[in-house]
Automatic annotation (TrEMBL):
It is an enzyme of class 2 (transferase). GO terms for molecular function: kinase activity. This is Leucine-rich repeat-containing protein kinase family protein. Residues 204-431 form the Protein kinase domain. It comes from the Bacteria. InterPro entries: Kinase-like_dom_sf, Leu-rich_rpt, Leu-rich_rpt_typical-subtyp, LRR_dom_sf, LRR_domain-containing, Prot_kinase_dom, Protein_kinase_ATP_BS. Keywords: ATP-binding, Kinase, Leucine-rich repeat, Nucleotide-binding, Repeat, Transferase. Its EC number is 2.7.-.-.
């Protein structure tokens, strides 16, 4: 993090990245001295409400973070920034999104937790958009022009006021990660009926925090006879939606050998939670989340090198798990290596239902389309894993077969993709 005094003193000359958190209510014009070098500007967690017309002089700026400020509109000057491909306005008060407010080449737009009632009719002009986060607004419908956003890969629409899901959205050729729980047509009012018990929080002794995500905090906890993992939800809208929808999808998913086992749930007046089986410490994350550069695709530690046999075993388990989920009418919404855990034998544990959605209220066609959208995510996962395989193995027959499965799963012609059941059969017969 930088300081305003450093900026004013010229100590940041030549900087490519600038972050200021200083309760700013006015845009610091000294930032314009960095116009020839600045690529990433982070002014989140301030009190800004507008940008000056001179902002467009930042001609090298690629990414701007303005989350948790006081914006009520999207400044139209952003459209004049020639290199800008990412804009983040999470947690503002934005209700006005005028036409032509953003550059046509934008790839990543974050508007989570604002007050948007509609998107501009010209939204379809943003044809390069890959990642779109709109959870926690008041959208009742999406503009039909959005069907032209054929580069979209990840879309978050949870916790809005949508009255239906448009078929054209489910027909976008590159869409792979979709979340839409908690809208008017599918908002959960109470917990799903379950054979699991509602266990009081006081039954557990919380020992330490072992994990934290957008929706809640995971604690190592002592139960009556053993240790468990207790996830306590924050009770607010997250980047993926409402905690109640996440809990319901976990309960609806039921048990499977490759899903993190849910033992009971916690439902009290001011606390919602899940009690889960403690994961063996031998398990580690299969991958790392996407970076600013990869946008929608996972990353891996330097030197990560999976064997083709490991990729095959992981893929077979994942296809089987996802068949189970869709049989139970649950879409995961976040099929990624970073949400998948493996041990030294490449046994899989899959979790994190923050972006999951109950599909039961949708038509058969829409359920099928959403499954094929998730098949694309599965194909991307296989592609990402195959990228870690050593070059010497890439001539092997199994590598070729796995590459073919990834290609078929990511086919831009959605109807040509196999179902998860077909993929499971195919993988079981592969060797």
């Amino acid at each position: 993090m930088n300081t305003l005094s450093e900026l004013k003193a010229g100590k940041l000359a030549g900087a490519k990245h600038l972050q200021l958190v200083e309760q700013l209510s006015e845009f610091p014009t000294d930032i314009f001295k960095l116009a020839d070098t600045l690529e990433v500007l982070d002014l989140s967690n301030n009190n800004l409400s507008d940008l000056p017309d001179e902002f467009a002089c930042l001609h090298r700026l690629k990414r701007v973070f303005l989350s948790f400020n006081q914006f009520k509109h999207i400044p139209s000057v952003l459209a004049k920034c020639p290199a800008l491909i990412m804009v983040a306005f999470k947690g503002n008060q934005i209700s006005e999104f005028a036409p032509n407010s953003l550059p046509k080449n934008i790839e990543w737009l974050i508007l989570t937790d604002n007050n948007l009632h509609e998107l501009p009719d010209d939204f379809g002009n943003y044809t390069q958009l890959k990642k779109l986060a709109l959870a926690g607004n008041n959208l009742k419908k999406l503009p039909i022009s959005m069907a032209n956003c054929t580069s979209l890969e990840l879309v978050r629409l949870s916790a809005n006021n949508l009255t239906k899901l448009d078929d054209w959205l489910l027909e976008l050729p590159k869409l792979a990660w979709l979340a839409f729980a908690g809208n008017d047509f599918n908002k959960a009012q109470c917990l799903t009926k379950s054979t699991l018990k509602n266990t009081p929080l006081e039954n557990f002794q919380l020992k330490k925090v072992i994990g934290q995500g957008a929706s809640g905090v995971i604690h190592l906890a002592k139960a009556e006879h053993n240790n468990v993992a207790v996830k306590l939800f924050k009770g607010a809208i997250t980047s993926d939606g409402y905690p109640l929808d996440e809990v319901n999808c976990c309960l609806q998913a039921a048990n499977h050998a490759n899903l993190i086992k849910v033992l009971s749930y916690i439902e009290q007046s001011e606390q919602l939670g899940l009690v889960m089986e403690l994961i063996d410490t031998n398990y580690t994350n299969l991958g790392l989340p996407p970076s600013l550069e990869t946008c929608t695709r996972d990353t891996f530690n330097d030197g990560c090198n999976y064997s083709i046999e490991a990729v095959y075993k992981i893929a077979k388990q994942m296809a089987n798990t996802l068949t189970h989920l869709h049989t139970n009418k649950v879409s995961h919404g976040d099929i990624y290596a970073h949400n998948t855990m493996i041990n030294e034998h490449y046994d899989v544990l899959f979790g994190d239902f923050g972006a999951a959605t109950n599909l039961a209220m949708l038509s058969e066609y829409q359920q099928q389309q959403i499954q094929l959208i998730e098949v694309r995510a599965f194909g991307c996962l296989i592609e990402d894993l195959l990228s870690t395989v050593s070059a010497a193995v890439k001539q092997d027959e199994l590598f070729g077969k796995m590459s073919d499965i990834a290609t078929r799963s990511t086919n831009s012609v959605i109807a040509s993709r196999p179902s998860f059941k077909a993929l499971s059969t195919l993988l079981n017969e592969l060797v």
